[in-house]
Amino acid sequence: MYNLNEQPFKKTFTNNGPWPVKDVMTMKVKESALANAQLLDHQLCFALYSTSLAMTKLYKPLLGELGLTYPQYLVMLALWETDQQAVSNLGAKLALDSGTLTPLLKRLEAAELVSRQRDAQDERRVVVSLTSAGKKLKQPAARIPACLIQSVTCDVSEISELTQRIQQLRDQLRSAQSHEDIP
Prior knowledge:
The chain has nine helices and three strands. The chain has helices at residues 21-37, 44-66, 70-81, 87-94, 98-110, 132-136, 138-141, 144-151, 156-179; strands spanning 85-86, 114-118, 126-130.
């Protein structure tokens, strides 16, 4: 993958001397690009991270009215899409490990929004289902996306395109992780 010990660019030697003008200019451009690449605001990861934080802050008061946290809202969205899912399926869909997902589900169960039951066919499998209160919460939650769209200057098609591009990036990163030895 990446070797942080490698030189970012090689010295090239020609008949005109060790650093011809064009190579010196190229090197300065590369040095400048490398320096700029290390600026915080030039980091894709930071742009995504800080945007996620800003989005979560925007969701907080809207979800507070429903008695949900943002991660709980994601669980509910997944269950409103497909009810009666195995915990393992929910974890895969939401990219959450069981150590994170189980406490979320316990809190949702304590709030009587979901129920968890062992699968009769396979005792190792736990199935999560919406309760009637969890199903009823879907209607008031339906206004949340519209509230968020009103908060940004993008129209729906731009948001949809951006979402698709971010999903493609996520899928590419996941693919890269599964094909590389990333420490």
